[in-house]
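re the bet — no i am not wrong, look at it urself. input seq straight from the record:
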Amino acid sequence: MDCKDTLKYKLDKSKEIVSFFLVMLKILCLALSLVLFLPPQLRAQEEGPFATLNFVVLGQGDFLLQRRAIVDGVIAASPFDMAPEEAATDLALAELHLTHLLLPEAATYLGALEPGTLTPEEERRYRTIALALDLLGGPEGLEQAVSRSQGWGQGAALRAAAFARLGNVDALRDLLPRMPAALDGLSPALRVAVLPDLLSGALDAGDWDAASFLAALFDDHAELRDGATYRYLLARAAEERGELLLAFDGYVKAARGRNVDAHRARIALVRLGRRTDTLPLGDAVKLLDQARWAWTGDAVAQEGFELLADYALEAGDRLTALSALDRLLLEIDSPEGAEAVRQRVGNILRDYYAAGEVGQ
């Protein structure tokens, strides 16, 4: 090897060493930031069964860069054998995806782990991430999740949102004063996920101070402030305060949306019109009959079908009532509820034939 080749070899090795140390420095800086820049209320947080998750710092960073830093750090630390780092990597990636509300991906990384093989600290993180996913998930197991989350201070906003979805107003009311600090401890994506439930729950609880605070936070998130959910909840608040014109205007704007709260707004608009005698009964039937095709498949859709049947019967329109109840039978998943609808259909038909027998 001549001098030129030797020099080239040394330069290449130097570049490899520098690259390695730059990667390690990046990982070290990220790790230090996770510790040093946590809000005080989280740095002093829980030991015991819950780990402190790094929602704030991870939520402020670029998702792709953070993900690459985690993976590069593992490769740099164990280029020939990644097995010792797999658990820590999967936990870090699960936490990162949870922070950015990529819930299926976070659950996938957790699913790759065996809790019994983890260190005590890793197991705490595993349980805490799994708990957060359960609190943000669907109705199945939600009551068990809020029970398991008792004492989790960092998850107060997630717990409160879960209580709101469960309709547990008393439990929610106790947590609402803690929401300013609790929401500060979440990433922007997680705040977007819980704010609609929190505002709806605050309205249910009649806590106007909390509702005003939460409504103001919607303006910080474009995906919330321009949506049907925000308009519907503001209209609902206006109706409960007796500001009926403002409520009417809000429901009309919300009803133009395409999500479940847009359909809630359509139903609320009809109810408000009937309650104030500003919407004739025939128009209420027509509006609900048109709106029933806009949203299907859940309890809100079922509410619309039931209300349509009620108003149609009141207007003497048995055919529309039977059509609404037929759709309701297709939607409803409770055997008891389905039986009640069938009995109602039977009653309508009996009344119809009885009226025919007397020439009405």
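see?? Residues 20-46 have pLDDT under 50 and may be disordered. told u. also The first helix runs from residue 3 to 36. so pay up
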